[in-house]
Amino acid sequence: MQTEWVDSRRAVEELKELAGLTGGPDGARRVAWTDEWAKARGWLREKLEEIGGVEVETDEAGNLWATAPSDSESAVLLGGHIDSVPNGGWLDGALNTVAALEVMRVLAPQRRPVTLRLVDWADEEGARFGRSLFGSGAAAGSLKPDDVRGLRDRDGVALPDALAEHGIELDRVNEASRQLENAIAYLELHIEQGPVLERMDLPLGVVTGCFGVERHAVRFTGQHAHSGSTPMDVRRDAFIAAARSAVTFRDDAARREDVRATTGFVNVSPAIVTAFNGWCETSLDQRALDADVLAEVLKTAREESEKVAEEEGVSVEWERLWRIEPIPFDEELIELAEEAVTEVAGSSHRLPSGPLHDAAEMARLMPTVMLFVKSLRGLSHTKEEDTPEEDLELSVRALHRLAVKAMEREASRG
Ligand SMILES: [Zn+2]
Q: What residue ranges carry the coiled-coil annotation (predicted)?
């Protein structure tokens, strides 16, 4: 297979064309299950249908598939999502889709050892109904119709009715799973949406997986009392215990590589100027790519909070709000992706993904990897989202090379 002739410039021009069609001064308007999204979809479908030998179809969950068959039914998948958040950026999701379109154009007419497929997932963002990863979750089986049947948008429109307008029957969305039957690898290019690559002055990186998350409410209970009459050494100040604990959570995460710890909400009572607080509730959101590391930072945080609570004469209790396991990507594909990135950009960097992507759903089912391209100022989900055009071009070339490598790997296995 040739690796040289991908027209990365055309991909950038088509991204601009899509932004012109379904965006404007206030950002992208491609919210899933709306007319603007359908328009973007129609635009993509037309471009795919122009490629000779490619079959285009929509599955039961509303995902758009383009298939370039080969003698082997085993398929390498290139994934993206053309939907956006309201007033979103021009690249989030669209880059993956348009880059994959260009890769299909180049590789579909060539003899390939395996089938190549593009998928534009339906409703990755969950912007209208609040459920992200709709299409990929439906195909993977993690989204069940009953979990989302009652969802309504801001105007009171029920999700099943919005789906029906686009020809989708909620009770049949899991039938999209048959699309994944012959899939052997899933590749996704995305903007980083964070500051890491820009800070390292690198255009491209390879994603090692999606963070696992442990999210808790941490509540401290002491006794509030008068600010004037209570000497400092007898106070049971719940806020001070919470604040000291939050610093230990932050410091423990900062000591480690690629671990996050965030205190988000802080509520105190009685919250008046003439008393210290007898009650304080905080949230703690911890993230790591390794399950053991995540368990360890959680254990350390609990122990630290108990130690601090004892010193401050208060009690502490933890309540889990939410958790998700880390989703590591495939080591062999990570290495292939590093080769591809190094070939087009000279060097590569491994980094985890903070946000979840459709790739997280696929990684449970098949070898998966993602490429990240630099985001300027780390901004995303805003019209300010941007990436230098020369870096976008590099990312298209890297995706192309990775697709070729993933197909050749399968061929070499016979
Ligand atoms: Zn995205």
A: none
